[in-house]
Amino acid sequence: MGKEVLATENVKLNVTVASKEEAIRLAGELLVKNGYVHDSYIDSMMEREKLTTTFMGNFIAIPHGTDESKKEVLASGISILQIPEGVDFGNGNVAKIVFGIAGKDDGHLEILSQIAILCSEVKNVEKIVAAKSYEEIKELFEEAI
């Protein structure tokens, strides 16, 4: 049995960050700390953000590494930052939920699909923003899949 894609320790509630860079770094650090990626993956996440924003609309950002960084991924996983105050991802786009993604092989495509399904409805995003526990967030994901 592999690592759990969305483990309890990958979720941080009520986070306050000063910038999108801080949010991306924190999302990446959770993935590093919990054994999903090598430390250098965070730099790749920052590089990817410079190429084009990972803000997706509906108060969601999904930072991830570049194609070249796939070798830095040890296991597929996501980290979730709940940022109730929001963080500016540029051009007035505010993210309240930041999903850090690492996909082993093509594992990120399935993860992205699950996030897209869940977050396509703003009411689900609002539920994630309002969630008071890891269990509430996990339940929302399980319902969407």
Structural overview:
The chain has a single domain, classed as Mannitol-specific EII, Chain A, CATH 3.40.930. Helix content is 41%, strand content 19%. A hairpin with a 2-residue loop joins β2 and β3. It is globular, with a radius of gyration of 14 Å. It has helices at 20-33, 40-51, 107-119, 122-130, 134-144; strands at residues 11-12, 55-57, 60-61, 77-88, 94-102. The model has no long low-confidence stretch (mean pLDDT 91). It has a 5-stranded mixed sheet with strand order 1-4-5-3-2. The protein is of the alpha/beta class and 145 residues long.
| CATH class descriptor | Alpha Beta
The value of Rg in angstroms is: 14 Å
The assigned structural class equals alpha/beta
Largest sheet: 5 strands, mixed
The topology string of helices and strands comes to EHHEEEEHHH
| Number of domain modules | 1
Question: How many distinct helices?
Answer: 5
Distance, first to last CA: 20 Å
Low-confidence stretches: none
Q: What tags apply to this protein structure?
A:
globular; 145 residues; alpha/beta; five-stranded mixed beta sheet; Mannitol-specific EII, Chain A; 5 strands; 19% strand; 41% helix
A few lines on this structure:
The protein has helices at 20-33, 40-51, 107-119, 122-130, 134-144, and strands at residues 11-12, 55-57, 60-61, 77-88, 94-102.
SSE layout and pairing:
Layout: E1 11-12, H1 20-33, H2 40-51, E2 55-57, E3 60-61, E4 77-88, E5 94-102, H3 107-119, H4 122-130, H5 134-144
